[in-house]
Amino acid sequence: MSLNIEGRIHRFGDEVNTDVILPGRYLTLRTPEELGRHCLEGLDPGFVDRVAPGDIIAAGRNFGCGSSREHAVIALKAVGVGAIVVESAARIFFRNAVNLGLPVLVCPEAARGLAAGVPARIDLDRMTISQGDALWQVDPLGAEVRAILTAGGLVPRVRQALGA
Amino acid sequence: MTGRTITEKIIAAHCAEPDSVRAGAIVTVRPDVVLLNDVSGPLAFTQFDAMGATRPFDPARIVLVADHFAPAPDIVAAGAIALTREFAKRHAIPHFYEPGRGGIEHTLLAELGMIGHGGIVFGADSHTCTAGAFNALGIGFGSTDLAAALAMGQLWMRVPDSVRVVLTGAPGPYVTGKDIILDIIRRMGSDGAADASLEFGGPGLRHLPVDARMAIANMAVEAGADTCVFEGDDLSAADMARRGMAPVAAVAPDPDARYREVIHVDLDRLSPIVACPPSPAAGVPVEQLRGQKVDQVYVGNCSNGTLTDLRQVADILRGRRVAPGVRMVVVPATQKIWRAALAEGLLDIIAEAGAAISTPTCGACFGGHMGILAAGETAIATTNRNYRGRMGHPDSQVFLANAWVAAAAAVAGEIVPPGEIAARILTETAA
Question: Do B191 and A96 touch (CB under 8 A)?
Answer without folding.
Answer: no
